[in-house]
Write a structure and sequence with these properties.
Distance between the termini: 24 Å
Largest sheet: none
Strand content: under 5%
Number of helices: 12
Length: 246
Amino acid sequence: MIEILNLCINDFFKKKFILLSILPFISSLLVIGLVLIFGANELFDLLKQSLISTDFSFIDKTKQGFLVSLLSSDITRILVMSIFYTLGGLLGILLSVIIAAIIAGFLTPIVTKFVDQKYYNTKLKSQVGSVRVIKIFLAVFFKFILILLITIPFLFVPFLNLFIINMPFFYLFYKFMLIDVASNSLDELSFELMMRKDGGFEFKFVALIFYTLSLIPFVGLFFQLFFVMFFTHLLLIKNQIYRNLQ
């Protein structure tokens, strides 16, 4: 792990990859900015003003009278506001990281090719089919939505919500990285083997570390290609080990 980290640091902090990393960084900031300008601000201001003034005219009192009385409570208002601010900020970070990861995905072939040619010179017997990759991505996305729906009721539990909200997004980040990097660095047989093993313990452990680092503002936006570079080394080394055992 330390050796891979040193290799990635030496390669990433060069002009080529620094410039490439600016693209997902700037693009994700622009997308988040547009979302905040055209959508989130109105919802945020509406809820904020309603909680402060106890004006819930946008709620049908005849059907949700209990909800209005509950929201009118001072304790409830403080609790809801704190949850709203916390989850709003966290969701903003998570959304920006996912957008950066998707944009970085278009640059993954450049990174994997560089790492392979410089250190491993792998001879791919067959390419992973695009249709196969898309099917796996869709399956992962639907599972992400399902996990997200299951976690929604827990978002209203203070402190616990900070951990629960990360479960579906970590799953999406981890799976996205595994599929993206593996499909661009391994042949068809090795790719299917890696999918069955879910990347192995090392991949999951590193993904958890990188995901945690991504929660630090701007870190996850700029270092997506560094993550891809590290994962490429990890998968190619594991692939060499599997081949030697056969």
